[in-house]
Batch of 4 targets.
Target 1
Amino acid sequence: MEISIAYLRFFCQFKQFGLYYEDMRIIGIDPGIGRTGWGIVDVEKGKLIVQKYGCIETFKDQSVGDRLLILYKTLEKILDEAKPDAFAIEELFFNTNTTTALVVGQARGVAFLTAAQRAIPISVYTPSQIKIAVTGYGKADKNQVGQMVKTLLALKSIPKPDDTADALAIAITHAFSYKMK
């Protein structure tokens, strides 16, 4: 995995001096209709601490309405238990398959609704913003993102499935950048 020297210096400053601005609990969401990854990261005294993460899965043989209801009810439970201070979600980006984009957009809407009902501030990040924040390179592949999530959160292995690692990357992105918005 290639990481730029400038990014390593930036990362070391965060680790050494604790340049996060305030303690907070962040939930990162990687939305999807089949799989929605989620990850809860605490920022405590300038350190990133993973609390919980997982993936909400639905199945193709279920109706879209049932799948969205499962997503809603599961996110409700996660948010009510975790009580996050911030909700960070990935921006929807598709260039070809409009059908997939529509259904993923519906899942995103359910996630937004669940956070809004609890008055949790919502922040949206593009895939390239997430990759830059976590790896220092806007075109990083899934493995590079996963490796940096593992490193930044001091995990023993890369969280699986990829949706879960991506959700943690989104939470990390918020920890690194929310004061800059």
Note: The chain has one domain: 5-180.
Target 2
Amino acid sequence: MELPAQAIPARLTNMCATGDTWPVQATRRFTQLVAHHVVMARVTSVSNVVSVCLCDTSGDDDVHINDVLIRNGLAKKCRDHSVSRTASTYVRTVCGTLLRMVFDVLMVFV
């Protein structure tokens, strides 16, 4: 059985770009952290965009994706409601594909 690709607008909880736009390095690091990994998503809020905390639990120590990006200086903490339209657009377009991959992997186990 093969399911069609599905996606919902989502963003990483309480995070935003360090400048006006997301740097390419942030996209690369995010990809390294989630591609080919089983990642747990904890939904923290739902409105027109779903806010999630992502965690890779496959190793001995959990890797909290949101925290890694902030610690690496690729994102900064901000309240979800203060996120600019640019950040939301970034998550939908750039991270949307990665989140679809994560959800597709999760759907296999359902």
Note: The helical segments are 24-34, 65-71, 85-108.
Target 3
Amino acid sequence: MPVPRRFDRRPPERDTTRINERIRVPEVRLIDDEGNQIGVLKTPDALVFAQERDLDLVEVAPEARPPVCRVLDYSKYKYEQAQKVKQARKHQQQITIREIKFRPKIAQHDYDTKKHHVERFLRHKDKVKVTIMFRGREVTHPERGTAILDRLAEELSELGVVEQRPMQEGRNMTMMMAPSKAVLAGRVDVAEISNGEVHNGAHMGDVASTAIDSPLGHAGAGGSPDGGAEDAGDTGAFGEDVPPVVVESSAPDPQPVAAESSPAEDGPAPADPAVP
């Protein structure tokens, strides 16, 4: 069953500007449609003056003594005022406050990920509220939170400025960052990559990227080129690479041996004369 809408008992907004017959004061100071001062006239005479020109008599300064009235087209006047308000609202800059939370024992990879989020918020001209959340006995070491916030502000100094220095409230430490003048002026590209960001999708501290960029990056997991266990003779005393030693034999190639006949067929072998 649909829920019935509540009846709005508030009266509709009413235009409080007094025009024409709604002006009840006995006399007014009149200004014509060209901005010239006519002087103080009786209200009926001022109304006749406006009707002769097919315009309205509008009270523009009710607090004055006598009130000031002007001859103009009231519908056109209201339209122009609405356009002015609309243009003023269009030029207003709306700033959104984003919040991102850190922990005092945050790892390097998680820190880089959250730092990129803060960088993205600043590039989109949003303010960022950075919060360090302490738990348990971590609150006794506020210097860890201050160090993280100071490092973040230093690394993003080109994109943001610190509006509020790190301040601890209970178990949370907060810092407010705002976009820098370069970002607000549009001199910083939204898709620009900062100096601290690592290309190819790898973050600082990424173990895989470090292994690839190292001199031994082409070796396997165990250090040997074929990915197996490392032999004892592959490295020297100071860890330098030692080329494998190839041992060559100086003995001549073995000659083929002729097949000998069996003693059973040829009879007993002759005795050696040197043996008694």
Note: The two ends are 129 Å apart (CA to CA).
Target 4
Amino acid sequence: MRAVDSDPSLAGRYRTALMARAEVLAEQALEVVFEPPRLDPLTGRVDPGWVLRQRLKWDALRWHASKLDPRKYGEKQMVEAEVTQRTINYVVALPPPMKSVEEMDAEAERVLRPGGGGR
């Protein structure tokens, strides 16, 4: 690995090769998943031992692919974010306060009172 670490060109090619190998393993895992089931000759049902073996093969291929290319096949995804502080004045966005019941009663009285300047 010292040769890979010391030569940037070789390191890039090595990384590309690892990613290609991970792709092959992922494709092999899909082939395992879509392989037609083996039936038990006595019962005609799917052989449970075969199912467990297929699951083990799929898990091993998936695990190996996740080690070769963790960004694409890994369990955890790294999230990088740059956060800047931004202050928003929410008071401006609020609607004007509602009138109190007393203010609405006084306004109704003024409008409905005869000769009180209503329409």
Note: Residues 2-73 form a domain with the Arc Repressor Mutant, subunit A fold (CATH 1.10.10.60).
